[in-house]
Design a protein that fits this description.
Elements (H helix, E strand, L loop, with lengths): L1 H16 L6 H6 L31 E3 L12 E10 L7 H12 L11 E5 L9 E6 L1 H9 L11 E3 L2 E5 H6 L8 H16 L34 E2 L2 E2 L7
Parallel strand pairs: 2-3, 2-4, 4-6
Antiparallel strand pairs: 1-2, 5-6, 7-8
């Protein structure tokens, strides 16, 4: 009888320790984070799945060196750093930073109206306002969770002071952007940096219309057509705020 009780209790403890993986639907419903403290590596690191080991360098980042060009002609200056996780084979931090500079410096991006300026600073700089990370699916999920977001390791996110780009989405894109991977990457950068600049999620304005950049396009275009940019034809393009 004692042996049976011990076995039952042990079974219950093992069940309690099993992690629960949120589904994609739960990730889609997650709200914007509130009040997360910025940090380069999450303080609480969940255990790897049974039978798997953390790859060497997981949760560790290399930072892009040097200073990028001034992006924009006026308005508040937002300084940012760029980092790539050591476990991500490509791109390295330098190539990732170059793609970010090109995207945010485009006349269709956030600096279009001259009300916002952006500039990349070295990883060692102490005056950065935020950091853009390229992180593996597992690490990005953990980093997003520090701000209360459940991404299921599928999508990118933003928590205060951190723009976190999911390396799987960077490498593979999504079905609605099939054949347009470079454009999806531009969308991901503009969308998450848009959150850092204070913009919330927006809705598709109508069947066949361009999707607002702040729409959650990674979860589907909802009848809209793909669009990676906050400014179209020199004007801010936006949808209704998402309730």
């Amino acid at each position: 009888m004692v042996v049976v009780v011990i076995l039952v209790i042990g079974h219950q403890l093992r069940d309690d320790e099993q992690p629960t993986a949120p589904g994609r639907e739960a990730a889609q419903r997650a709200a914007e984070p509130v009040g997360a403290e910025p940090m380069d590596v999450p303080a609480a690191t969940p255990q790897a799945a049974e039978g798997t080991a953390e790859p060497v360098g997981a949760g560790e980042f290399r930072y892009a060196k040097g200073r990028g060009p001034m992006l924009g002609t006026g308005g508040r200056l937002h300084r940012f750093r760029v980092a790539a996780e050591k476990t991500v084979a490509a791109p390295g931090p330098g190539d990732f930073a170059a793609e970010i500079d090109r995207t945010l410096g485009d006349q269709r991006s956030w600096t279009s109206e001259g009300t916002v300026r952006l500039r990349r600073v070295p990883g060692s700089a102490g005056n950065a306002d935020f950091t853009i990370f390229l992180a593996s699916a597992r690490t990005s999920e953990r980093m997003c969770a520090t701000g209360g977001l459940q991404t299921a390791g599928f999508t990118s996110c933003r928590v205060p002071g951190k723009v976190i780009i999911n390396a799987d989405r960077w490498a593979e894109g999504i079905v609605d952007y099939q054949g347009h991977l470079a454009e999806y990457r531009q969308y991901a950068i503009n969308h998450e940096v848009g959150h850092e600049l204070g913009h919330g999620h927006e809705l598709c304005p109508g069947e066949g219309e361009p999707a607002p950049v702040m729409m959650q396009q990674t979860y589907g275009l909802k009848g809209c057509t793909r669009n990676a940019w906050p400014y179209l034809d020199g004007e801010r393009y936006a949808g209704e705020p998402m309730a």
